[in-house]
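Dear Dr. K.,

Following up on our conversation at the group meeting, I've run the structure prediction for Dihydroflavonol 4-reductase from Escallonia herrerae. I'm pasting the input sequence below exactly as I used it, so you can double-check it against your construct before we proceed with anything downstream. Let me know if the numbering doesn't match what you have in your notebook.
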Amino acid sequence: MSGAGKTVCVTGASGFIASWLVKFLLQRGYTVRASVRDPSDPKKTHHLLALEGAKERLHLFKASLLEEGSFDAAIDGCDGVFHTASPFFFATNDPEAELIAPALKGTLNVLESCAKASSVKRVVLTSSVASVAINGRPLTPEVVVDETWWSDIEFCRKIQAWYVLSKTLAEDAAWKFAKEKGIDLVVINPAMVIGPLLQPTLNTSAEAILNLINGAETYPNGSVGWVNVKSVANAHIQAFEIPSASGRYCMVEEVAHYADIVEILGKLYPSHKLPEKCVDEKLMPKYQVSQEKAKTLGIDFIPFEQNERFLAGGAVGGSLGEWPKVGRKMEVEGEEEAKRGDHVGRHAQELFSVDNMSGVGKTVCVTGASGFIASWLVKFLLERGYTVKASVRDPNMWYPLIDWLKLLPSYKVDCLLLLASDDPKKTGHLLALDGAKERLHLFKADLLEAGSFDAAIDGCEGVFHTASPFFYRAADPQWKGFALGYSMHRIVVASISGVPAEFQPDACEAELIDPALKGTLNVLGACAKASSVKRVVLTSSVAAVIISRRPKTPVVVVDETWFSDPEFARDMKLWYVLSKTLAEDAAWKFAREKGIDLVTINPALVVGPLLQPTLNTSAAAILDIVNGAKTYPNSTMGWINVKDVAVAHIQAFEIPSANGRYCLVERVAHYSEVVEILHKLYPSLQLPEKCSDDRPHTPVYQVSKEKAKSLGINFISLEESVKETVESLKEKGFFSG
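The predicted structure tokens came back this morning:
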């Protein structure tokens, strides 16, 4: 953990960017001193105090931007300072008092405290692309803005761009002060920052999206740079940790006109009423902002469309649905309240009407709800307003076969199944989700028991069947004896020979195929009985698509018309592949016979952050690489982020035209590429340097994204997915880093 033993200060810690910065710093092991205006105000501190590691390593300090010496106590003894606190809004009656003074004087007050503290090695300042690009120079499609640009102070005054002026003056003063006092200063210049909210209050950039989906008749005539809040928070930390980091870093994933945003929202949420015309007739042109310097910090930008999806369908909707009352205040980056007198003080339902919560009044069932994918699916369904009936197994103790673990050292390990049933650890993370208290209902169900799902499914409009055991037979020596993890209610320790018959591969086959095949038919049987069910979404796998004797080479493009060959899978003893192939094939036949509207999602190896407190197979694949493995597998896999998979399930249910199968593969990559990504992200980690065998690397191939994109899926990059997985493994305590 890169921050272990180090102390840093974050000013304006309750703000949008700062909250994510505090979260990521705590995840990395830092001790964080967080300055806020009023530590006793739970609206400003509760979400921070609830963060993982906050109890042990988060300390709140009272400080005000306009009060000299106010930050001395918070900064004294710190290794680094992140100064984020500054007001952010555009309309003001008194720009000097409300914007310029807090930004300029506040920045100098913080830097003065840094100059007094000999412990401070570097200061990272949150500036803005507003201090870069506004100078009267034409911004046209061929223009590339970079860090050498500066906004023009007189031009800003002339056009009364007061926020731009405040950021430009503050950053300029910061550079002069740092040079004079010998402070090592790095500046982050983000564009319009969007993405999920940690804080319980609405910020300016989120409100920009909210206005579009909440009844606006027109959209603004503006071409704006956009970037995800998590990318910005990570950039701050990288700018502090990387010794060679220096100067300014523009953070812009994409420059897009509001017309582009409306188009994206229309595809993602076709039922929403969106503005159909611009406030002006002639649209402002787009331009470019260089990403070259930002990429030297190791930033892999989250796709622009992904940011929009989080705001419109998830974070904003879910958060607002829980607010008893909010004021419509434009964002304050940090603690300076916007004293603008235009708070409307209306209920959250008025700010975000139930029409925008696509699941309000609807009930759905999720089987195997405690699993990796299913947990995210439940989370997103609750955020959209659905009532969720979640099936889990009986919360009993471990099955007695746990005693066989003691035998492992005396056997050659090939395949051992350790059965377990659900315990409170399988449901606690679900019950803690926003909206769970009111709209999540747990049901006991077993895949192999006919009629077991009837009660959970009865009365539901939709069913998401995710429950199925997931593990592989590990032939590679590096996997011997390694606990691959589990999905639902099976744990795999690897393969076995020389042990009692019940642990031989035949048992592995039975423990995979029966739950997958019979379980799927039992669930569909319950759906056929329930006249309320309008559609079933089945979690299949790309394993049911690609495994056959057909060659896969770089020029081959796999798509939804492919089906894995059951006999080939049986010959190769690929029991997981066989189980998913047989289950999906049986599902399609049953659905046609019974007239069930079925859609299947076929994801590749699913990685990304864990909600559940237990290790799953795909996360374990990453954990093994970062946790001391000597070699990496000679294997080429498709990879996909769990959040994309969960959203695809919901879109497949909500979009009337959705049908058939949907392959979900962001990228096909050899494990060597994953190791390379990990090395760039975590250069200090000891990673495997060679493959597990001397044979040529298995070739990459392609998987078509065309059909998946019709669901509005804009894939999270493999780099971001790998990083989220590792950070989540750290947060959950599986890996110290």
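Two things stood out to me. Residues 505-529 form the longest helix (25 residues). Residues 7-356 form a domain with the Rossmann fold fold (CATH 3.40.50.720).

Best regards,
J.T.
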